[in-house]
Every structure is written in C-alpha cells, then in structure tokens.
Amino acid sequence: MRLVTRAATAALRLPAARTGRVAVTRDIPVRVRDGVTLRTDHYAPGLPAAPCVLIRTPYGRGGPIRLLGRLIAERGFHVVIQSCRGTFGSDGEFAPLVHERDDGLDTLDWLRRQPWWTGAFGMFGASYQGFVQWALAAEAGDELRAMVAVVTASATRDSTYAGESFALDTVLTWAELLQAQTVPWLARQWELKRGQPRLARALAHLPLAEADRVATGVTVPFFQEWLRHHTPDAGYWRTRVFGDRITEVRAPVAMVGGWQDIFLPAQLDDYARLRASGARTRLVVGPWTHGSPGLLLASLREGLDWLDTHLAGRPGPERAPVRVHVGGEGGGWRDLPDWPPPATPARWHLRSAGGLAPEPQERSAPDRIWYDPADPTPSLGGPLLVAQRAGAVDNRPVEARPDVLTYTSEPLRDPVEVAGPVRAEIHLRSELSYLDVFVRLCDVDRRGRSWNVCDGLVRVEPGRFPRDPSGVVTVPVTLWPTAYRFASGHRLRVQVSGGAHPRYARNPGTGEPLGTAVTLRAGWREILHDCEHPSALVLPLVPAPSTAG
C-alpha cells in the first residue's frame, strides 16, 4: 500500500508524507445509543499527538476511500472511516439523513475514549459525506477544528425540489446506485455495460411511485417518502436538514464546489451564512460536475492544506478566501475577497423574431409553444448526479425542437464577464394552471454551437404567482449562479421551455399529486416580451481583469 500512496502522491502532486508508518485496524465495532453497531476503520500514523479526521460514509470503506484514508494518515492524522448504519457491515437500516446526527455524536463520544485522542478533530467528505458533517457540526463544540465540505450542503430539501419541482434524475439515480451496492459486483458491472436500461425505463415511467421498483426491483422507502412529502411546509424535512444551526458552527470550513454541481446554490447559501456569522471560510468553485475527476483532485489538495492549517496547526501560505474558475474563452481562475463579487445587474430582454438585447421592445407579439408532457422537453447536460451525462454540452439538438424557444443576441463587440447569481423574469399566459418554466443561458460560439452555462426551473400552480386581469403571470426564475466570460464574437442565448426531463419530473398539467399522477394534459403557453411585459434575463456584470489567474 505504501508504494501505491507514493505513486498517488507523485501523480497528484500532493504534499509530501510526514510518515510512512500507518497501522490499520478494520471493522471496529462502534456501538451507538440504540444498540446498533457501526463498522469502523482506523488508520493510525506513526506520529505522536496526531489529531483525528472523521469520515462517515454510506459508500463503503474500500476502494478509493481506503486510499484516501491512507493518504491523509501519512500526513499526520488519525483517520477514522465509518460506514453509515445499514451500509457495508454496519447494523440497522439506511434511512437518508435520519440517524446521522445521533450516530455522529455517539461516534464522537467513542473517539473521546480512545487512548490516542488529543481533543481535536476535523471532518472531510463529499456529497452525502458532507451531509453527515453538517448533521454533527453545530453540536461538536470546540473539539471540531476544521471541516472540508465538498459538493454538499447543510440543507438538502431545496436541492431535491428545485423550483418546487422534483429532481427526478438525481433522486432516482441515487436510489439505484445505493441499491446497486447491495448486489454482486459482476451483476452490477453487467447492468452498467448495458447502459442501465432499467434506470432509463424508470425515468420515463408513470406513476412515479412505481419508478423505484422499475429501476431497482424493490420499493425504496426514502424515494416513496420524498414523493409524498414534497410541499414546502412538510414537517418531514425539519429533522432532515441541518441548515437551521449552521450559524452556530465555529470551526473553519473549506468548501469545494462546481458550477455544474447539483448542490451548488445551497452550498453557496451555506457559505454566505457562515461568512455573515463570522466563521472562517475558504470557497473554491471550479468547472466541475458532481463527480468530475478534477473536482476530486482539487478537494484533496484543498482539504489536506485546510486540515494542516486549522487542525494540525501547520500554517501554509496565505490564500484568498474565494477562488473561482471563470468559464468561457479567455476565462481562468480568479482570487476574490468574497462571493459574490460586486456586480452591476444587466437586463437582456427577450425580443421578437428570437432576438435578445439590452433594450426592451416597445411592441412585440408573444411567442407560442405547445408543451406535451407525453413527449416532454428533454434535459441535456447541466447539473446531474452522474458526471458522464452532466456539464456543458452542445444544445442545438434540443433547441431544434418546436417546444423550445430561443432568444439570441447579436455577436458581442467586446467580452462580457459575469459572476454571481443569475435570474430571469418571464411573463407568460397559459391555458393551463399547472406548468413549469425552464430557462437556460447558453454561450453560442463562432461555429454556432450553443453551450449551456446555467439554468433554472420553476413550477407554477394556482396561487403561487399572481395573474393580472388578462391572465398574464410573471414568473421569477432563479438560475444556477455562475462565473463566465462571453468572448467577443460570441452570442448570448436564452432558452425558454416547459421542462427539462428527466432532470426534473415532468409537470403533468393537471395538479395531480407528484407520486400518483398519470393523466397528462398538453397545452399552449405564450411568452410575452413587450414594454408592458419585459421578459428578461438579469446578469451580474463584473469588470474583466487584465490578466487571468
């Protein structure tokens, strides 16, 4: 194993190991308050007075995470890797987010009783491994000295129901991946080789309450619960989100995210709240999706540096609180004092004949599209759980569909750089009371390829947004935040459509419950863009620096 870690250190350009002696004890039984035993591995470095790094995970303690444990331990930390209950040898049933607070606190109590315990620990992990950090962080006290939270957030509810729709692709894919962990390895590889046909059928299936069985062959309890408890006032989520106590966290927190990550908006909200509360933070956002190799490498480098500085007390070089990658031609890395940077809101108005310009149009006939949930507008790229299908892609195939409207600017004379939150205001009239509005910003290059930059969807239903006497409703759409440079000669493009399936569950148009809806109702909708109804995209303009970082 030492040869492997040496090779990994060299290949990944990691800081040099502090010790080559790491003793590993596997399958330690840690008993928690309700009698459940959680299986735990301990990587002990051959160094005195080493602090501890805790990683709790539902994805197993072998494979890449075993290498991670060894790499962190060689840099002078005790590393404790624990399987969440109901996964990989730990007793009980895995119920997402339900037991992580209590199990985390009981594990911390177990750590305090170990002979090597120094009174200080940190936490490290991505995605669900970050959720379990936030579940524990507010009650860990002064012993928690550092956190490394990668593509994750303290509150998962808003990411699950972005725009009050349902993140179908993410949730069902995750349910399938969790179930796949329980089947033999060869069977799993065969399913992957065939392109996961069961998952593809499940994403297209109605009612959604049967989709988990189509994808996995079994009923997945949390999937059923998330379909039932989807309203904003659902009490179900109060004990499953941990953002209400984030301002009590005093440990320094490093956050690593990606512009095309599923949790980015919630993660940036965590960052803003921590900064406002006075916590020490570091934010890095790169050109990554949820599972990008570059993201994993950056999180390892950033994480080791953060743990060295704030847990082990080995200060490194001073760094800016925020480092973001600006996408697009002529972009690059920028170091910033805070996020978002100061910006000037700039409105780009939808116009007739598919135009897009800074000035509104005095008179302009509305555009009409027909949305049919039986043939839903497909999603293409963007923030998805599986990296192979996510990210920036050429959008021309979906833009050629009759149920997608596009509005495109003239070629830019000068570069346009944006950084911060992006939003749209869409004025529409529809014969249906239940509908979705999907808005996407794209960069059209000189060859005519249309690359998605950021997007967002909002679900419209009676009473959510007021209608004027003529039936027009103004829909505010919050898009993913971004940092992007549109080069001279490129064009801005805004897509408007009625959905992005299966990333978001299709809107049946009937108001039927999320899990049981089977009746699909198609209908027309009009997008208005005259001076009285100035539909527009609002971009945060920032001055472009003379040199890229």
Overview of this structure, please?
It comes from Micromonospora tulbaghiae. Keywords: Hydrolase. This is Xaa-Pro dipeptidyl-peptidase C-terminal domain-containing protein. By secondary structure, the protein is of the alpha/beta class. It is 23% helix and 29% strand. Strands 1-2-4-3-5-6-7-8-9-10 form a ten-stranded mixed sheet, with helices on both faces. Strands 11, 12, 13, 15, 18, 20 and 21 form a seven-stranded antiparallel sheet that branches. A four-stranded antiparallel sheet has the order 14-19-16-17. Helix 3 crosses helix 4.
Q: Layout of helices and strands, plus pairs?
A:
Elements (H helix, E strand, L loop, with lengths): L1 H11 L9 E10 L5 E9 L6 E6 L6 H10 L4 E6 L16 H13 L8 E6 L1 H10 L6 E7 L6 H4 L7 H13 L4 H9 L3 H7 L7 H6 L4 H8 L24 E8 L3 H14 L3 E9 L3 H18 L11 E5 L5 E5 L7 E7 L5 E2 L9 E5 L24 H4 L4 E5 L7 E15 L4 E10 L5 E11 L12 E14 L4 E7 L25 E6 L7 E6 L8
Parallel strand pairs: 3-4, 3-5, 5-6, 6-7, 7-8, 8-9
Antiparallel strand pairs: 1-2, 2-4, 9-10, 11-12, 11-21, 13-20, 14-19, 15-18, 15-20, 15-21, 16-17, 16-19
Helix pairs in contact: 3-4
Give the low-pLDDT segments.
Answer: none
Number of E-type strands: 21
In this structure, how is the largest beta sheet organized? 10 strands, mixed
What amount of the residues lies in strands?
25-35%
Classify the oligomer.
single chain
| Widest sheet: strand ordering | 1-2-4-3-5-6-7-8-9-10
Q: How many angstroms separate the termini? A: 37 Å
Rounded Rg: 24 Å
Task: Kindly name the structural category.
Answer: alpha/beta
What's the shape? Answer: globular
InterPro entries: AB_hydrolase_fold (IPR029058), CocE/Ser_esterase (IPR005674), Galactose-bd-like_sf (IPR008979), Xaa-Pro-like_dom (IPR000383), Xaa-Pro_dipept_C (IPR013736), Xaa-Pro_dipeptidyl-ppase/CocE (IPR050585)
Domain Xaa-Pro dipeptidyl-peptidase C-terminal: 304-538
Pfam families: Peptidase_S15, PepX_C
Keywords: Hydrolase
